[in-house]
Specification:
- The structure is a single chain.
- With 105 residues, the chain is mostly beta strands.
- The protein has a single domain, classed as Sandwich (Jelly Rolls).
- 0% of the residues lie in helices and 62% in strands.
- It contains no helices and nine strands.
- Strands 1, 2, 3, 4, 5, 6, 7, 8 and 9 form a nine-stranded antiparallel sheet that branches.
- The chain is globular, with a radius of gyration of 13 Å.
């Protein structure tokens, strides 16, 4: 899906790590949420509430998922899943465009 139709976009940006990671929240008619954002090169640690599916639209990064000891290489066109109530680390290599889907249990 290259575009979302009939959605609400929250104007206020989500800004993390001194502006190196930013996103906007998109809310669908059924109440589901996604964020669309950009990550600048750097190292970051995130916490989840809900399960997340991170689709990397462009760019390149390494991710260390909970319960794993090896970093996974991810590039544009690939995705990864993060369980609910977890922490994960990312090493963003190049500016990365992403779409994060929140999956409510």
């Amino acid at each position: 899906m290259n575009e979302f139709i009939d959605v609400t976009v929250v104007k206020k940006a989500n800004i993390y790590f001194d502006g190196k990671v930013t996103s906007r929240t998109v809310i669908f008619r059924d109440g589901t949420k996604k964020t669309l954002g950009i990550m600048q090169p750097g190292e970051y640690e995130f916490n989840t509430g809900d399960k997340e599916i991170m689709e990397i639209l462009s760019g390149e990064l390494e991710v260390l998922l909970p319960g794993h000891s090896a970093w996974q290489h991810i590039k544009g066109g690939e995705l990864f899943e993060v369980p609910e109530n977890a922490k994960f680390k990312m090493q963003v290599i190049t500016v990365s465009d992403y779409c994060c889907s929140f999956i409510n249990a």
